[in-house]
Amino acid sequence: MGGKNNQLFCASGESHSMATLRVGRKSLAKGYADRTGALQKMVAGLPDRPSPDEVHDLRVAARRIRVTRRLMPRPIRDSQDSKSFTLALKSVLKATSQLRDIDTLTVTLKSCKGVSPGLLLNLENQRSDSAARARDTIGALADIQVPELDVTKLRGKRLSRRFKKGVREHSKKASSLLIQVLNDESRVVELHSLRKEVKKLRYLLELADKVPERRSSLAKWQESLGAIHDLDVAIAYLKTLDAGSGRGAILDLQSARHSNYMAFVRAYRADRMQALGEGGAPSVGALKQASLGPA
């Protein structure tokens, strides 16, 4: 790995090759403290029936912490307090999964003509039931002791090796998925999988000692891919209904999906051209280990 193909999310004039991209003890400790602190504050202020934005923010906070904890040495992750905390995070994500799905489905359908008020009312009732089921799990998270991070047990070189390994793994998966979706918008499963890999890579890169400036491209990609997924869910949901009046709504959603897909492709190509012009990244021309897209 060398040259341009070994650079990841560099701005012009910077040198953020995989050889120099690293995370030190202080960066990890700060990232962990910031992310767990934000989660604790969030959980303490949540009402019994959290809003869609509150559910979204809670899930993002939990996922960011999980990404952070994967970089920690096994002795830290294997402590009883640590395992309890990990289980609590996993439980919250599972408990709020349906709630989040209903929220995104409702928002998508509200923006679409031809959707009956009765359908939206039904979703609202489902949301109330789902929120009630998730309440105890979310509340239990507030009672969990967040494990302290003993910085003296962290080793900078090992952290950076683990960090780079994670970046390579997610980049490689994203690259493979990009090849499949860039010329085929019907790849529903692959587009959703790409969104998840981009999300994990973004949360990981945020922990670097010097965060690559081009990570903003990941945020844009994630947003576009998220919009596509939300539309896919809404289209699939309407197709399960017998109401013929939903056909017009499906056509509207399919049109919006195509527009979002093309916007994503244009953003990818623009990022690629900028990367080639700067000799940096996102190094979408590199397929091997440090890239996000095909040449």
Uncertain residue ranges: 1-16, 280-295
Helix/strand structural class: mainly alpha
Distance between the termini: 15 Å
Outline type:
flat
Main sheet attributes: strand count, strand direction, barrel closure:
none
Question: What is the count of distinct domains?
Answer: 2
The helix count comes to 10
Q: Any descriptors?
A:
mainly alpha; disordered C terminus; 10 helices; single chain; 295 residues; disordered N terminus; Four Helix Bundle (Hemerythrin (Met), subunit A)
Overview of the structural elements:
This protein has 295 residues and is mainly α. The protein folds into two domains: 1-24 and 156-295, no CATH class; 25-153, Up-down Bundle (Four Helix Bundle (Hemerythrin (Met), subunit A)). It has helices spanning 25-44, 52-69, 74-77, 80-95, 97-110, 117-143, 156-181, 188-205, 215-239, 246-278. Residues 1-16 and 280-295 have low confidence and may be disordered.
